[in-house]
Amino acid sequence: MTTIAVVTAGLSQPSSTRLLADKLAAAVSSALPDVQIDVIELRDLAIDVTKNMLTGFPSPALRAAIDTVTAADGLIAVTPVFTASYSGLFKSFFDVLDPKALDGKPVLIGATGGTERHSLVLDFALRPLFAYLRAEPVATAVYAASSDWASPGDLDTRASRAGREFASRLSREGTVAAPASGFVPFEQLLRAGE
């Protein structure tokens, strides 16, 4: 069974950040059979993360979250955007991980914000963070502005595409079905000729 850790840093309840995380997890689940999804709400661990940064010792709840992320086959990481970047809570959680904990781990990144103008946070903040941690983000990342929730058709399409890419990356054989549009990942075309 494939395990996926979902880290969501939304502060409110309900939060659009959690809604996007759930949408991405559902997209992966529909593309990859036999998957276990474990969701980590960082809001619930905020005090534990802060204490760990001050003392260097995780609480049992934070240790469990860290172990879940470390042991997972893949990671979905979603943050709200504050001041044109990921939230402090999101960054602090990844700061308390062992620097090698995400080596080679596939990551599907997402972010939420009030306006579309913050969408570049995916490429200018999140990708560099995960590159530093030597994780491997998939090509498609998903940003959801407030307007995306009013008419979520395009958001659903983007989430579905990202979910398929992530599932393909996690699949040992890389045989995740191509979407109805006929798109087949290049790596799958190359393997077909072997």
Describe this structure in words.
- The chain has a single domain, classed as Flavodoxin domain (Rossmann fold), CATH 3.40.50.360.
- The chain has 194 residues and is α/β, with parallel strands linked by helices.
- Strands 1, 2, 3, 4, 5, 6 and 7 form a seven-stranded mixed sheet that branches.
- It contains eight helices and seven strands.
- It starts with a strand and ends with a helix.
- It is globular.
- About 5% of the residues have low confidence.
- Strand 3 and strand 4 form a beta hairpin.
Write the layout of secondary structure elements.
Elements: E1 2-8, H1 16-31, E2 35-41, H2 46-55, H3 60-71, E3 74-82, E4 85-86, H4 88-96, E5 106-113, H5 121-132, E6 136-137, E7 142-145, H6 146-150, H7 153-170, H8 186-192
Parallel strand pairs: 1-2, 1-3, 3-5, 5-6, 5-7
Antiparallel strand pairs: 3-4
Helix pairs in contact: 1-7, 2-4
